[in-house]
């Protein structure tokens, strides 16, 4: 049964015999730690609202002879700070449900900032500073006081987008006495030439049909400023890829990097003259083709 009628009837029979956990097992040590009775009933009283958790807990407290006894039944107890003239049971309810909401949301006690970096900065590694404005509560006046704070952190060479830097208790002070953490999330800016793929780098290199058939020599400027020579005298097919070991992103192992994967895009002539066609026929008529 649910609702007021269910509360009047008291808790359901124990299911321990069927292998299920009883209600008392949800509390440290069961109900043995609680003062007074180990069974509870709720009755309809003037002003009692069975759908209001505060009313339910207040009647729950009265069965123990007071809310202090109830809260002492929990290891460590609960805070009894008085805010705005609240009673201990009111304070318990506020703390209980605010903590639950914070745990469910996962973001109540942290604030996130993004840190956009270029691929060159991530490749080489860098040190960054972030200025944040915190809201602190003046204990004397209870007023909110804005305060600037500088956060400094080191970006390891090769760190991946989505990596997080956490600064505990560096954010705003909240009315419940908690202080937010600040979480900085690494964000990778798009690069005009390279695309990251895990620890590897990808690049598309454009060749003319002549270069694809007769060979080519090209240079690529790497993310650390070097000039990498690439050449090939074999026939290159459109979409073909070539791997260059240890030319990708740095990894946690300083002796190893990812690879560079070069994909070839072959451009064909827009138009050929009869002379060009005759020359090609003469040059290609005796070559071997793939089956």
Task: Note down, in words, how this protein is organized.
There is one protein chain. With 291 residues, this protein is α+β, with helices and mostly antiparallel strands. The chain has helices at 3-9, 53-64, 67-72, 88-105, 119-124, 209-214, 274-284, and strands spanning 110-117, 126-137, 144-155, 164-167, 181-188, 195-197, 200-208, 216-221, 227-232, 241-244, 260-267. A four-stranded mixed β-sheet has the order 6-7-11-10. Strands 1-5-4 form a three-stranded mixed β-sheet. A two-stranded antiparallel ribbon has the order 2-3. A hairpin with a 2-residue loop joins strand 6 and strand 7. The termini are far apart. Residues 1-8, 14-28 and 70-107 have low confidence and may be disordered.
Summarize this structure briefly:
By secondary structure, the protein is of the alpha+beta class.
């Amino acid at each position: 049964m649910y609702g007021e009628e269910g509360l009047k009837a008291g808790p359901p029979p124990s299911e321990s015999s069927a292998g299920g956990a009883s209600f008392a097992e949800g509390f440290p040590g069961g109900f043995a730690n609680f003062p007074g009775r180990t069974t509870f009933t709720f009755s309809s009283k003037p002003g009692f609202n069975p759908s209001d958790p505060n009313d339910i807990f207040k009647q729950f407290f009265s069965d123990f002879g007071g809310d202090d006894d109830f809260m002492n039944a929990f290891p460590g107890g609960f805070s009894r700070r008085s805010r705005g003239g609240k009673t201990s049971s009111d304070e318990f309810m506020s703390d209980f449900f605010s903590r639950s909401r914070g745990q469910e949301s996962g973001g109540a006690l942290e604030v996130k900032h993004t840190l956009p970096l270029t691929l060159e900065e991530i490749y080489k590694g860098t040190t960054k500073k972030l200025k944040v404005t915190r809201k602190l509560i003046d204990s004397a006046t209870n007023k909110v006081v804005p305060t600037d704070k500088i956060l400094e952190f080191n970006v390891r060479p090769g760190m991946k987008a989505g990596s997080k830097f956490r600064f505990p208790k560096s954010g705003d002070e909240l009315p419940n006495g908690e202080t937010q953490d600040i979480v900085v999330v690494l964000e990778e800016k798009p690069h005009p030439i390279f695309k990251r793929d895990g620890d590897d780098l990808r690049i598309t290199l454009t060749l003319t049909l002549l270069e694809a058939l007769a060979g080519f020599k090209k240079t690529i400027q790497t993310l650390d400023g070097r000039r990498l020579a690439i050449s090939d005298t074999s026939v290159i097919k459109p979409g073909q890829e070539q791997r260059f070991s240890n030319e990708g992103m740095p990894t946690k192992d300083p002796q190893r990097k990812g690879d560079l994967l070069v994909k070839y895009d072959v451009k064909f002539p827009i138009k050929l003259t009869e002379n060009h066609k005759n020359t090609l026929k003469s040059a290609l008529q005796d070559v071997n083709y793939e089956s």
